[in-house]
Amino acid sequence: VQNSYAYLIATPEKALCDLIITKPGIRIQSLKAISEFITQDLRADFDVIEQWDLTIINECIKYGYKKTELRLLKSFIANECNI
Fold it and tell me: Using H for helix, E for strand and C for coil, what is the string for the chain?
């Protein structure tokens, strides 16, 4: 098909990991800080977060930068959403 395009669309989990990794100035060093980032800065919907797949965040931790921040993200989601 002429003039067709393909797009890769990240899952919400991957998109959030990418945001944390690539956004300059994000220094998350505690569960309180990640909580504030997700709830106040991003205004995340916890009904949606409860359905997230933590294995995607694990993969980002393995291959990404800001491993500490991503581990805190995973812990926060697991604790707050009982995943």
Answer: CCCCCCCCCCCHHHHHHHHHHHCCCCCCCCHHHHHHHHHHHCCCCHHHHCCCCHHHHHHHHHHCCCHHHHHHHHHHHHHHCCC
